[in-house]
Amino acid sequence: MVSLGCLNQRFAFPELPITRLRQLIDRQDFVLLTAHWTILNAMVYILARIANKPYAVNPAGSLPRFGRSPILKSAYNFFLGRAIIRNADVRIAIAPTEIPQFAEYGVTAEGVVVIPNGIDAESFVPADPLPFRARHGLDDLPLILFMGRLNSIKGPDLLLEAFVQIASRFPSYQLVFAGPNEGMETTLRSFAQSHGVADRVRFVGYVGKDEKTAAYRSATLLAIPSRKEAMSIVVLEGGAAGIPVLITDQCGFDDVQRIGGGRVVKAEAVAIAEGLATMLDNAQELPDSGRRLCELVRNDFTWDAAATRLSAAMGKAVEQRQECMKGSK
User: Fewer CB within 10 Å, N or C, the chain?
Assistant: First the structure.
């Protein structure tokens, strides 16, 4: 394994000389590109084409041109981005909801294979929740857990607004936000204070790997109110820990509701409130929901499962390329 430093973190411009990068690519049988808007991807794509190496692309939800630098992104796509996606031997979506994003690049649904994200499920075996509660001064009341960045795209404000709507109906529940502050904590605290739930809303900050499982195991349910997400890793982590989840339809994991592991709702406060109320009204069913979700995650969403699918897709692509080369002779 070679770890590359970057001269520019935002655009992933590698420190490694291009001659060394070409040597690394020349030694590979297959190349995998992840994300999309990076100089590194452009360089590796060009070198892989020169070396006639088959390659796969896994944009991981990054194909839409939302966010910063729309002009730069349009230029990137015009000169190389579209070609990177269009010419790939394997195009990977991490969730079925990502497939339509390839259409702008001239790729039909038949040209995309779904290989979901994975986790190391053994890192989330049952853990004692008491140390987590004690460390953060949480009492023994049941809690709804948010795990993630306090950033608008993750929807913590939607969850807090939903909690306010159901707070009087479920007076024993508290809401815990676990994750780094990215500019929203003050606003969230103020909203909780103005709506009379400040004493039931806690902010515990970043939760490290060692206590993540304990945090999940502390929760009655895990809420993931994201406004936009290719596929939530948090739902896999919570599932591996055996916790039922409420997610939005923007999280790329609608299987949650299909297998009875929780609920999928619109990314709106009213819909989230209704989903929470339905789950809490049937709290006796939540442990079984958590077990069903855990079984799904451990069977289909580990890194071993992802590697098996990727290996099969790469093998098929290599065979097709070899057949094309034979036919051209």
Answer: N
